[in-house]
């Protein structure tokens, strides 16, 4: 019986996580759909762009770090 109890609690936690991820994806999709960050996101100082002839290498280093910090903060606040 105790194993079933722990299983049900784990399923409740999984449900909460899935609902949160769904809400997060909807909000992110709406922000992207309405053009949030279209002018500056990916064009920050520190983003690497190398163009040589018909070859282009692009690595948004600063943008990646910024997104990582924001997501870490959001998840930290949720866990608290």
Automatic annotation (TrEMBL):
Keyword Zinc-finger: no
Pfam families associated with the record: DUF2905 (PF11146)
Record flagged with keyword Transmembrane: yes
UniProt keyword terms in alphabetical order: Membrane, Transmembrane, Transmembrane helix
Top-rank taxon, per record: Bacteria
TM helices/strands, residue ranges: 17-37, 57-78
InterPro entries, sorted: DUF2905
PANTHER family on file: BSR5223 PROTEIN
Designated name of the protein: DUF2905 domain-containing protein
Source organism of the structure: Methylacidiphilum infernorum (isolate V4)
């Amino acid at each position: 019986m105790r194993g079933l109890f722990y299983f049900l609690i784990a399923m409740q936690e999984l449900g909460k996580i899935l609902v949160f991820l769904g809400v997060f994806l909807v909000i992110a999709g709406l922000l992207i759909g309405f053009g949030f960050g279209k002018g500056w996101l990916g064009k920050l100082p520190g983003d690497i762009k190398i163009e040589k002839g018909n070859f282009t290498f692009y690595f948004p280093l600063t943008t990646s770090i910024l997104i990582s910090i924001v997501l870490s903060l959001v998840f930290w606040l949720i866990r608290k």
